[in-house]
Amino acid sequence: KQEVTQIPAALSVPEGENLVLNCSFTDSAIYNLQWFRQDPGKGLTSLLLIQSSQREQTSGRLNASLDKSSGRSTLYIAASQPGDSATYLCAVEDQAGTALIFGKGTTLSVSS
Amino acid sequence: ETGVTQSPTHLIKTRGQQVTLRCSSQSGHNTVSWYQQALGQGPQFIFQYYREEENGRGNFPPRFSGLQFPNYSSELNVNALELDDSALYLCASSLAGAGTDTQYFGPGTRLTVL
User: For A44, which of B90, B97, B98 is closest by C-beta distance?
Assistant: First the structure.
C-alpha cells in the first residue's frame, strides 16, 4: 500500500530565505507526482506536476525534483515571501491513473 | 474558462441524515474525482468518475456513492451520516481517464455532522 510522508510537518522562516520541503513515498511504481498548495479552509492549487519519466519541473521561484528509485521528491522555494505561507501537499498518482495519494502536508509560515 | 465549482460551501447535518454534494467540472474535462479531507490530514480518495462510470474507488463504505451526469458534473451522496464524516469534501476534474493531466480542485464543501 502506497504511503506518502512529508517532512517537516511545519516550518517557519524569515522572508527571503530559500527552503526545501521533502516528500517520500514507499512504492516507486507511480504515474506522476504533484505538489499542491492549500490555504486555510480552501481547496488545492496545483503547483507542479512531474511525470514519472521526468526528473524535475520548474515554475517561477518553485522547483520540484523527483527521484523515483529512492522514493523521494523535494520542492525548492527560492526567496520566500509572506504570500508563500500555506500548507504544501505532495501527492503521487497510482499507475492506474486514478487516485492521488497525499501526504499530510508541510505548513509553511514566512514572516516579514 | 470556468474552473471547478462546488456547492454548497458549508453544510451542517445531524447523525443519520443523508447529504448530497455537487461539483461542476472545469470546461472540457471529462473526469471527476472526490476526496475527503479531515482536519490536519491530507485528502483521501473516495472515487473517480469517467464518462459517467465509476473508474476507481478508495477505501470508503458503500454509503458513499456518486453520480456523473452527461455534462460531466457530479454528485457525492453520503447516507447514514456519522460524526467522523465531518470533513472538507473536495472535487477535482481532469481531462482523460488515464490521469495524464493535472487534476484541478474546487474550493470544497465543509460538512459538519452533529
Answer: B90
* A79, pLDDT greater than 60: yes
Nearest CA of chain B to the CA of A10: how many Å?
12
Find out whether B87 and B36 touch, Cβ atoms under 8 Å.
yes
Q: CA–CA separation, B75 vs A29, rounded Å?
A: 31
Is B105 in contact with A101 (Cβ distance < 8 A)? no
| Dist CA B67 CA B11 (whole Å) | 20
Question: What's the start-to-end Cα distance of chain B, in Å?
Answer: 38
B81, B90, B76, B91: which is closest to B112 by C-alpha? Answer: B81
Cell of B81: 451520516
CA-angle at A109, arms to A103 and A111, nearest 5°: 165
Least confident of A91-95, B5-9, B30-34, B101-105: B101-105
Mutate to test the interface with A, among B31, B103, B110, B111 (most CBs of A within 10 A): B103
Give the DSSP H/E element, type plus range, for residue A78. Answer: none
What are the φ and ψ backbone dihedral angles of B36, each rounded to 5 degrees?
-110, 130
